[in-house]
Structures are given as structure tokens and as C-alpha cells.
Amino acid sequence: LLPQVCAQLCRRPCYCPWVPPRCPRGSPLVLDGCGCCKICARRLGEPCDFLHVCDQSQGLVCDYSSAPAGTGGTCNFEDDEEGCEVNGRLYRDGEVFQPSCKIQCHCLDGGFNCIPLCQENVRLPTPDCPYPRRVEIPGKCCPEWICEAQDQHLLRDARAAAGAPLLRYPCQEWGTEWSPCSATCGLGFATRVSNQNRHCRLETQRRLCSLRPCPALPAAFPAVS
């Protein structure tokens, strides 16, 4: 079958453009399927066929498994190599990648594990910073804690008391998970740190909790006469 395809598509002598094509970044110049002219190698996920070959230096082959008969395929990794797909993009086994600036992932055995790159530390109010607030900084990926000045804080409280909008900016809700209940039976309380309040201010919050009723105390032994 291959000699028939070559006879139909490959013409001799070769007639190639005088100037080689300018390839996008990450796509090297390679010989086409006829071994005749230099073309830009197809990258992962791009269409391919006998003439338009994939970038073999990246371990890519033309995959016809999901293509209708008689049509081209798609550049993909070889079937014997594990990989993972994230947001429509394929990654090779062992490859480390960042879907966004806030997380880093590792492709392993067909799945992937991700770790956050932004610290999720909690900054509680202190005497030198009584009103900490976590905000997005232009030009930076991870949000940062800032110390809001007291006059700004009082101004926001005054606007709230007067019925004016509490915030001139949307409050990005943030908080830790609720802690385990302080009591294993009966009534206890759980705590968390959150800014989900009318002033978007970081504070420690509490709520009541009860895991199960406490068992009844055994009756006292009768007195011995």
C-alpha cells in the first residue's frame, strides 16, 4: 500500500519553493512524507497526513484511529506511551506543566497531580496590622496580604452605617475550612478564619456543633446498709 501511495502523491523530480517556509516556534523544518521538500513539522493536536508529517523529535505520530476512512489524522503521542489530557491538551508521562500560574501539575501513569504555587497562609489581625486584607495585585499571579489603614477602615464602617454600599470593589470571599468540633459528644464549637462578613474583613468565626449525644452516666451504686 505504501508504494502505491508514494506513486500517487510523490512526484519526481521534486519541485520545492525557493525559500523554505517560516515555521512557528517549536515546529522544526523536516522533509515531507515523500522525502522531497522541507516543511514545518506538525505539532501535538494538529492535522497530519502522509505528506504533512508530525514532529518525530517530540515522539509524535500521525494518529488515524479517530479519523474517518480516507481522511487525515491528528498528531499524537504513540499508543505505548502513557499520557494525560488537561483542558484539551495532551501531556506526556512524567511531564511537568502549569495549566495556570497558580498551580503546577505532574503527569504520571495516565493521571496528574497538582500542587498550588500560591501560599494559602492566614494573616490574623495584629497590633501593627489590625486590618489585614487579601487582594489581587496587578501584574502578580498570587494574591497578597495588605494592611488597610485605620482611616480607610473607619470610612468603610461609616458608609455601612449610613446605608451606603459597603465596598467600592467586589469582595473576593476567602476562608479556611471549619475546624473539627471541640467536643466528641454533646455541644461544642468549630472555628475558621474568613472574610465572609459585611466588611470583607478577616476574622475568626465560631459556630456550634454536636457530633453525637453524650452517653447517659451510669446510675450510682446503691448505698450498702
TrEMBL record:
Cited PROSITE patterns: IGFBP_N_1, IGFBP_N_2, TSP1, VWFC_1, VWFC_2
Keyword Signal among record annotations: yes
Residue ranges of domain VWFC in the record: 82-148
Transmembrane segments: none
An example molecular function term from Gene Ontology annotations: integrin binding
Listed name of the protein: WISP2 protein
BP GO annotations: cell adhesion; positive regulation of cell differentiation; signal transduction
UniProt keyword terms in alphabetical order: Disulfide bond, Secreted, Signal
Locations listed in the record: Secreted
Cited InterPro entries: CCN, Growth_fac_rcpt_cys_sf, IGFBP-like, Insulin_GF-bd_Cys-rich_CS, TSP1_CCN, TSP1_rpt, TSP1_rpt_sf, VWF_dom
Natural source organism: Poecile atricapillus (Black-capped chickadee)
Superkingdom assignment: Eukaryota
GO cellular component, one term: extracellular matrix
Family membership: Belongs to the CCN family.
Principal subcellular localization: secreted
Chain ranges of the IGFBP N-terminal domain: 2-78
